[in-house]
Protein backbone atom coordinates (compact mmCIF):
# COMPACT_ATOMS: atom_id res chain seq x y z
CA UNK A 1 0.00 0.00 0.00
CA UNK A 2 1.25 3.46 -0.94
CA UNK A 3 1.42 6.41 1.42
CA UNK A 4 -0.18 8.56 -1.29
CA UNK A 5 -3.51 9.95 -0.11
CA UNK A 6 -5.96 9.76 -3.03
CA UNK A 7 -9.00 11.14 -1.20
CA UNK A 8 -9.78 12.55 2.20
CA UNK A 9 -12.81 13.84 4.06
CA UNK A 10 -12.53 16.31 6.95
CA UNK A 11 -15.27 16.67 9.61
CA UNK A 12 -18.16 15.95 7.28
CA UNK A 13 -21.71 16.77 8.35
CA UNK A 14 -24.81 15.96 6.35
CA UNK A 15 -28.44 16.16 7.46
CA UNK A 16 -31.77 15.63 5.73
CA UNK A 17 -35.12 17.20 6.60
CA UNK A 18 -35.86 20.02 9.04
CA UNK A 19 -37.05 20.50 12.60
CA UNK A 20 -38.29 17.40 14.46
CA UNK A 21 -37.98 15.33 11.25
CA UNK A 22 -34.31 16.22 10.72
CA UNK A 23 -32.01 13.20 10.36
CA UNK A 24 -28.27 13.55 10.93
CA UNK A 25 -26.73 11.20 8.36
CA UNK A 26 -23.11 12.15 9.17
CA UNK A 27 -21.65 13.93 12.19
CA UNK A 28 -18.00 15.09 12.01
CA UNK A 29 -16.73 12.14 9.98
CA UNK A 30 -13.10 12.24 8.79
CA UNK A 31 -11.46 9.54 6.65
CA UNK A 32 -8.49 9.14 4.34
CA UNK A 33 -8.04 6.72 1.43
CA UNK A 34 -4.63 5.68 0.11
CA UNK A 35 -3.49 4.28 -3.22
CA UNK A 36 -3.48 0.48 -3.26
CA UNK A 37 -5.70 0.26 -0.17
CA UNK A 38 -9.00 -1.60 0.20
CA UNK A 39 -11.15 -0.01 2.90
CA UNK A 40 -14.32 -1.76 4.02
CA UNK A 41 -17.05 0.53 5.37
CA UNK A 42 -19.39 -1.27 7.75
CA UNK A 43 -22.50 -0.38 9.67
CA UNK A 44 -26.23 -1.14 9.91
CA UNK A 45 -28.83 0.34 7.58
CA UNK A 46 -29.13 4.05 8.25
CA UNK A 47 -25.59 4.34 9.63
CA UNK A 48 -24.57 6.84 6.93
CA UNK A 49 -22.56 4.57 4.63
CA UNK A 50 -24.22 5.56 1.36
CA UNK A 51 -24.17 9.23 2.35
CA UNK A 52 -20.42 9.07 2.92
CA UNK A 53 -19.85 7.31 -0.41
CA UNK A 54 -21.99 9.87 -2.23
CA UNK A 55 -19.97 12.71 -0.72
CA UNK A 56 -16.66 11.06 -1.60
CA UNK A 57 -17.88 10.55 -5.17
CA UNK A 58 -19.15 14.08 -5.65
CA UNK A 59 -22.76 12.89 -6.01
CA UNK A 60 -23.88 14.96 -3.00
CA UNK A 61 -22.53 17.96 -1.07
CA UNK A 62 -21.88 18.17 2.66
CA UNK A 63 -23.55 20.70 4.93
CA UNK A 64 -20.16 21.24 6.57
CA UNK A 65 -16.63 19.90 6.18
CA UNK A 66 -14.50 19.21 3.12
CA UNK A 67 -13.94 16.40 0.64
CA UNK A 68 -10.73 16.32 -1.37
CA UNK A 69 -9.97 14.00 -4.29
CA UNK A 70 -6.43 14.76 -5.30
CA UNK A 71 -6.13 18.55 -5.41
CA UNK A 72 -9.85 19.21 -5.96
CA UNK A 73 -12.11 20.17 -3.05
CA UNK A 74 -15.51 18.87 -4.13
CA UNK A 75 -17.66 21.29 -2.15
CA UNK A 76 -16.17 24.25 -4.01
CA UNK A 77 -15.96 22.53 -7.41
CA UNK A 78 -18.10 23.56 -10.37
CA UNK A 79 -20.41 21.05 -12.04
CA UNK A 80 -18.02 20.88 -15.00
CA UNK A 81 -15.13 20.06 -12.67
CA UNK A 82 -17.20 17.32 -11.00
CA UNK A 83 -18.12 15.83 -14.38
CA UNK A 84 -14.44 15.74 -15.35
CA UNK A 85 -13.56 14.20 -12.00
CA UNK A 86 -16.12 11.44 -12.41
CA UNK A 87 -14.96 10.72 -15.96
CA UNK A 88 -11.22 10.66 -15.23
CA UNK A 89 -10.59 9.93 -11.54
CA UNK A 90 -13.52 7.94 -10.14
CA UNK A 91 -15.07 4.53 -10.74
CA UNK A 92 -18.34 3.21 -9.30
CA UNK A 93 -19.61 -0.29 -8.63
CA UNK A 94 -23.34 -0.47 -7.87
CA UNK A 95 -25.35 -3.09 -6.02
CA UNK A 96 -27.89 -3.19 -8.86
CA UNK A 97 -25.13 -3.45 -11.53
CA UNK A 98 -26.47 -0.37 -13.46
CA UNK A 99 -25.56 -1.87 -16.83
CA UNK A 100 -27.24 -0.71 -20.04
CA UNK A 101 -29.39 -3.66 -21.17
CA UNK A 102 -29.36 -2.78 -24.88
CA UNK A 103 -25.55 -2.80 -25.05
CA UNK A 104 -23.28 -5.85 -25.18
CA UNK A 105 -20.74 -6.53 -22.46
CA UNK A 106 -17.95 -4.97 -24.51
CA UNK A 107 -20.10 -1.94 -25.38
CA UNK A 108 -20.92 -1.37 -21.69
CA UNK A 109 -17.20 -1.23 -20.93
CA UNK A 110 -16.41 0.97 -23.92
CA UNK A 111 -19.07 3.57 -23.10
CA UNK A 112 -17.10 5.48 -20.38
CA UNK A 113 -14.10 5.60 -22.71
CA UNK A 114 -16.24 6.91 -25.57
CA UNK A 115 -17.50 9.71 -23.33
CA UNK A 116 -13.90 10.53 -22.52
CA UNK A 117 -12.88 10.59 -26.18
CA UNK A 118 -10.51 7.62 -26.09
CA UNK A 119 -9.51 6.54 -29.65
CA UNK A 120 -11.40 3.51 -30.90
CA UNK A 121 -8.37 1.19 -31.22
CA UNK A 122 -7.23 2.00 -27.68
CA UNK A 123 -10.64 1.52 -26.11
CA UNK A 124 -11.21 -1.80 -27.89
CA UNK A 125 -7.85 -3.12 -26.73
CA UNK A 126 -8.54 -1.97 -23.18
CA UNK A 127 -12.01 -3.55 -23.31
CA UNK A 128 -10.51 -6.90 -24.33
CA UNK A 129 -7.99 -6.64 -21.50
CA UNK A 130 -10.66 -5.85 -18.89
CA UNK A 131 -12.98 -8.62 -20.05
CA UNK A 132 -10.10 -11.07 -19.68
CA UNK A 133 -9.21 -9.66 -16.26
CA UNK A 134 -12.69 -10.34 -14.87
CA UNK A 135 -13.07 -13.70 -16.63
CA UNK A 136 -15.57 -12.62 -19.28
CA UNK A 137 -13.46 -12.85 -22.43
CA UNK A 138 -15.91 -15.34 -23.95
CA UNK A 139 -18.96 -13.15 -23.21
CA UNK A 140 -18.01 -9.93 -25.01
CA UNK A 141 -21.04 -9.91 -27.32
CA UNK A 142 -23.65 -10.97 -24.78
CA UNK A 143 -26.05 -8.44 -23.28
CA UNK A 144 -26.41 -8.11 -19.48
CA UNK A 145 -29.72 -10.01 -19.49
CA UNK A 146 -27.91 -13.03 -20.91
CA UNK A 147 -25.40 -13.09 -18.04
CA UNK A 148 -25.72 -14.45 -14.51
CA UNK A 149 -25.78 -12.11 -11.51
CA UNK A 150 -22.13 -12.84 -10.74
CA UNK A 151 -21.14 -12.23 -14.35
CA UNK A 152 -23.06 -8.94 -14.42
CA UNK A 153 -21.25 -7.73 -11.31
CA UNK A 154 -17.90 -8.70 -12.81
CA UNK A 155 -18.88 -6.73 -15.89
CA UNK A 156 -19.71 -3.79 -13.62
CA UNK A 157 -16.23 -3.99 -12.11
CA UNK A 158 -14.64 -4.05 -15.57
CA UNK A 159 -16.64 -1.00 -16.61
CA UNK A 160 -15.67 0.85 -13.42
CA UNK A 161 -12.00 0.36 -14.34
CA UNK A 162 -12.38 1.46 -17.96
CA UNK A 163 -10.93 4.94 -17.45
CA UNK A 164 -8.22 3.80 -14.99
CA UNK A 165 -9.66 5.61 -11.95
CA UNK A 166 -7.59 6.56 -8.91
CA UNK A 167 -10.56 6.02 -6.58
CA UNK A 168 -13.11 3.21 -6.81
CA UNK A 169 -16.36 3.48 -4.82
CA UNK A 170 -18.51 0.38 -4.30
CA UNK A 171 -21.87 0.54 -2.52
CA UNK A 172 -22.94 -2.95 -1.36
CA UNK A 173 -21.47 -4.58 -4.49
CA UNK A 174 -22.28 -8.11 -3.28
CA UNK A 175 -25.81 -7.37 -2.09
CA UNK A 176 -27.45 -9.12 -5.08
CA UNK A 177 -25.09 -12.12 -5.07
CA UNK A 178 -25.10 -15.50 -3.37
CA UNK A 179 -22.33 -16.28 -0.89
CA UNK A 180 -20.03 -18.01 -3.39
CA UNK A 181 -20.27 -15.20 -5.94
CA UNK A 182 -19.93 -12.57 -3.19
CA UNK A 183 -16.70 -14.14 -1.98
CA UNK A 184 -15.34 -14.35 -5.53
CA UNK A 185 -16.28 -10.71 -6.11
CA UNK A 186 -14.47 -9.41 -3.05
CA UNK A 187 -11.40 -11.52 -3.89
CA UNK A 188 -11.39 -10.02 -7.38
CA UNK A 189 -11.73 -6.46 -6.06
CA UNK A 190 -8.93 -7.03 -3.53
CA UNK A 191 -6.57 -8.39 -6.17
CA UNK A 192 -7.30 -5.48 -8.53
CA UNK A 193 -6.67 -2.95 -5.75
CA UNK A 194 -3.20 -4.25 -5.04
CA UNK A 195 -2.25 -4.94 -8.67
CA UNK A 196 -3.38 -1.56 -10.01
CA UNK A 197 -2.75 0.69 -7.00
CA UNK A 198 -6.31 1.98 -6.88
CA UNK A 199 -7.83 3.36 -3.67
CA UNK A 200 -11.07 1.48 -3.00
CA UNK A 201 -13.82 1.96 -0.43
CA UNK A 202 -16.54 -0.69 -0.22
CA UNK A 203 -19.65 -0.54 1.93
CA UNK A 204 -21.12 -3.83 3.10
CA UNK A 205 -23.39 -5.51 5.63
CA UNK A 206 -21.61 -8.84 5.15
CA UNK A 207 -19.09 -9.57 7.95
CA UNK A 208 -17.17 -11.94 5.67
CA UNK A 209 -16.23 -9.07 3.40
CA UNK A 210 -14.05 -7.55 6.12
CA UNK A 211 -11.61 -10.44 5.72
CA UNK A 212 -10.38 -8.83 2.49
CA UNK A 213 -9.90 -5.35 3.97
CA UNK A 214 -6.62 -3.54 4.49
CA UNK A 215 -8.56 -1.31 6.87
CA UNK A 216 -12.04 -1.23 8.37
CA UNK A 217 -14.20 1.81 9.07
CA UNK A 218 -17.26 1.31 11.27
CA UNK A 219 -20.14 3.80 11.16
CA UNK A 220 -23.10 3.96 13.50
CA UNK A 221 -25.71 6.70 13.65
CA UNK A 222 -23.61 8.87 11.37
CA UNK A 223 -20.47 8.71 13.49
CA UNK A 224 -17.23 6.76 13.37
CA UNK A 225 -17.03 3.95 15.91
CA UNK A 226 -13.61 4.02 17.64
CA UNK A 227 -11.61 0.91 16.72
CA UNK A 228 -11.08 -1.72 19.37
CA UNK A 229 -7.53 -2.68 20.37
CA UNK A 230 -5.90 -4.70 17.61
CA UNK A 231 -8.33 -3.47 14.95
CA UNK A 232 -7.33 -1.39 11.92
CA UNK A 233 -7.51 2.32 12.60
CA UNK A 234 -10.40 4.08 10.92
CA UNK A 235 -8.35 7.17 10.07
CA UNK A 236 -4.55 6.82 9.80
CA UNK A 237 -2.27 9.76 10.57
CA UNK A 238 -1.91 12.39 7.88
CA UNK A 239 1.04 11.90 5.59
CA UNK A 240 2.27 15.42 6.35
CA UNK A 241 2.50 14.54 10.05
From TrEMBL:
Any one GO molecular-function label of the UniProt entry: ATP binding
Superkingdom, natural source: Bacteria
UniProt KW Transport keyword: yes
Keywords: ATP-binding, Nucleotide-binding, Transport
Region named Disordered: 221-241
InterPro entries associated with the record: AAA+_ATPase (IPR003593), ABC_transporter-like_ATP-bd (IPR003439), ABC_transporter-like_CS (IPR017871), ABC_transpr_LolD-like (IPR015854), MacB-like_ATP-bd (IPR017911), P-loop_NTPase (IPR027417)
Matching Pfam families: ABC_tran
Start and end residues of each ABC transporter domain: 7-240
Cited PROSITE patterns: ABC_TRANSPORTER_1, ABC_TRANSPORTER_2
The protein, known as: ABC transporter ATP-binding protein
Record organism: Homoserinibacter gongjuensis
Amino acid sequence: MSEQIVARAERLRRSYGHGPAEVHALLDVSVQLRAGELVVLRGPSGAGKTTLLNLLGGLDKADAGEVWVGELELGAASEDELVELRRHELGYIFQTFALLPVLSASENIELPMRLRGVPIAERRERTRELLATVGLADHAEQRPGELSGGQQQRLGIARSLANEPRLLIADEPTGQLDSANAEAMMSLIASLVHERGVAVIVSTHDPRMAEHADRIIDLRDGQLVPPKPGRHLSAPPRADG
